[in-house]
Specification:
Oligomer: single chain
CATH class: Mainly Beta
CATH superfamily: YVTN repeat-like/Quinoprotein amine dehydrogenase
Largest sheet: 5 strands, mixed
Distance between the termini: 40 Å
Number of domains: 1
Shape: globular
Helix content: under 10%
CATH topology: Methylamine Dehydrogenase, Chain H
Number of strands: 29
Strand order of the largest sheet: 1-26-25-24-23
Order of helices and strands: HEEEEEEEEEEEEEEEEEEEEEEEEEEEEE
Low-confidence stretches: 1-14
Length: about 300
């Protein structure tokens, strides 16, 4: 009986995940969604159900300001020159000066719902999702004028760019496709994945795309368009990021972040978030997560 009990204990320990709770929770405005850490080391939070960008000092771990922008801020991009650009679903691009934390310029795109945003690595062009017209807008950073439009799938949301500036990856939420745009040759390939592909993250080599309905996350080699990994059997994944050869996946329905290796194997590490987490950013051995369900940011030690 003692030996049998010992076996049960061993199996229980092996099968359990290591659960990690947040070190700090910071309240923000309504509907925190996209998060971005700037070159000045502020965490910017797009509160999509509001008209504010929350700014958190990541060293002091305090909220330092809520910046009023256009309604329904959706995406954030850092120009690495002291400016942050915000795309809003209400159809406005806002430029924030990082030194003053004030909006210094706005550009309205009438009746266009602006969603995800990225830029080329030469800081010449923005690429902004136009959700309600099923297009991606190529916008000159110098004057915020549209230079080109690319037709994509139905109700596009997220966007990312390859490290060689050649390809754009776009998630189309209503027809279950991922559009890959060859910027130079203006060719567009639509990959059918089903479900509802949503948030896209990019790093030096890879693109990660979550699919909320099929509960999958896809990892692409960004420069050759090859899908190298599909992680399945998740539970409402939102954002996913690669860091230190590990894949961190945010599960909206389970209020957690699960960690996998580059082969897609679960590492039995689980971070417990607040209600309905969406986006994630990792910097300086800290994890930052937006919690849509209770208007907060969770901070974890990595």
């Amino acid at each position: 009986m003692k030996k049998f009990s010992l076996y049960i204990i061993i199996l229980f320990v092996i099968g359990c995940s290591k659960e990690i709770n947040p070190k700090k929770i910071i309240p923000v405005k309504n509907g925190p969604d996209a998060v971005h850490i700037s070159s000045k080391k502020y965490l910017y939070v797009a509160n999509v159900e509001d008209e504010y960008i929350s700014v958190i000092d990541i060293y002091k771990e305090i909220l330092i300001k809520n910046i009023k922008v256009a309604k329904n801020p959706w995406g954030l991009i850092d120009l690495n020159d002291g400016r942050i650009i915000v795309s809003s679903f209400s159809g406005v691009l806002s430029i924030i000066n990082e030194n003053t934390l004030e909006v210094i310029k706005e550009k309205s795109f009438n009746q266009i719902h602006l969603a995800g945003i990225t830029k080329d690595h030469n800081n010449q062009f923005l690429y902004v999702v136009a959700n309600n017209i099923n297009k991606v807008l190529k916008i000159n950073i110098a004057n915020l004028e549209i230079e080109e439009k690319y037709q994509v799938g139905n109700s596009p949301d997220g966007i990312g760019i390859s490290s060689n500036n050649q390809y754009l990856y776009v998630s189309n939420t209503k027809d279950g496709t991922i559009s890959i745009i060859d910027i130079k040759n203006k060719k567009i390939e639509n990959i059918k994945v089903g479900g509802k592909p949503e948030i896209i993250h990019e790093n030096d080599k890879y693109i990660t795309i979550s699919n909320f309905i099929t509960s999958e996350v896809y990892v692409f080699d960004s420069n050759n368009k090859e899908k190298i990994l599909t992680v399945k059997n998740l539970d409402g994944p939102e954002a996913s990021v690669l860091f230190d050869n590990k894949l961190f996946i945010v599960n909206y329905k389970r209020n957690n972040i699960k960690v996998f290796n580059i082969k897609g194997e679960f590492l039995n590490i689980e971070y417990r978030t607040q209600k309905n987490p969406i986006d994630i950013n990792i910097y300086n051995n800290k994890i930052y997560v937006s919690n849509y369900g209770d208007n907060s940011i969770s901070i974890f030690n990595l």
